């Protein structure tokens, strides 16, 4: 049993060095000693715990608990999926699954246990969150099937929404019951409130293009074709352990071209004329005053601080996107399925024509 510098016990194979660093070690299956050091004791304890479970995969999978399997599964997912996807898995497992199933052996988990989890959280979580919980469980138990721990996933036939809500949920994975859509009056107030601020150009471009905030943050000048009046979406910026990093869109449909309204062209031309004082990340259209990459957190923080000053209720940057239901009204479609089909299968000319209708509805340049 190792000890810290004050003589307190830290746990098996953990001790504190004279320089203050905590050290953990173990002997792997090949007989080699593996060592890790950190200023943080919790980091070392978690590492040792994970190591113990990872070593089990080669010796005893039959009696493994859901928690133990989750550690292995998350380790593998971290290197095979987008960071934000992995983070969602990790957060939703720890916050909404672990307390219900974590201590159970994987082989003991039945459909009834999973169904109870959803019933208990039906009033606490939105349907969107419940859907992510189900996706997390599905991936976890699919991994258990692949490892021959179980023959069939207990989550396979779980139902978390009513049939009447099914179409609405499948139509878009962004719209939720809590989604706010700005009225024309609120939009006018918001545009007046952002005038002259550091984020004015960014917010107006979001309104004109329907971009995700991460996509806006990832825009480079090479993505703009002023002659053809299109914007090429090729990357997104997300926060990885507190630091903004650039990556590819989450799905193949995320790589696309967006027609630009007159107002969007104006914003981009004005942005290009701005005097650049910092050369770092100069290929990016939008960045912080220090030249760093933007990420969603900057926009969320700004809105939280400034919306009350405008007399507006809180909303997120996603509110500035053109939702299918909103577009349905703008474009005069009889149902949202027509709108969704248009934006999935339409040509660039069709999109340009419809975007002109959006610009006419928004009338941003007149505000």
CATH class category label of the largest domain: Mainly Alpha
Order of helices and strands: EEEEEHHHHHHHHHEEEEEHHHHH
Class from helix and strand fractions:
mainly alpha
Compute the number of strand runs. Answer: 10
The CATH architecture of the largest domain can be given as Orthogonal Bundle
CATH topology tier name of the largest domain: hpI Integrase, Chain A
**Corresponding CATH superfamily of the largest domain:** Intergrase catalytic core
Characterization of this structure:
- The chain is mainly alpha-helical and about 375 residues long.
- The chain folds into three domains: about 1-60, 2-Layer Sandwich (Double Stranded RNA Binding Domain); about 60-160, DNA polymerase, domain 1, CATH 1.10.150; about 185-365, hpI Integrase, Chain A (Orthogonal Bundle), CATH 1.10.443.
- Helices cover about 45% and strands about 10% of the residues.
- It contains 14 helices and ten strands.
- The protein has helices at about 40-55, 65-80, 85-100, 110-120, 125-145, 165-170, 185-195, 200-210, 215, 260-275, 295-310, 325-330, 335-345, 350-360, and strands at about 1-5, 10, 15, 20-25, 35-40, 225, 230-235, 235-240, 245, 255-260.
- Helix 3 (about 85-100) packs across helix 4 (about 110-120) and helix 12 crosses helix 13 (about 335-345).
- The termini are far apart.
- Residues about 160-180, about 330-335 and about 335-345 have low confidence and may be disordered.
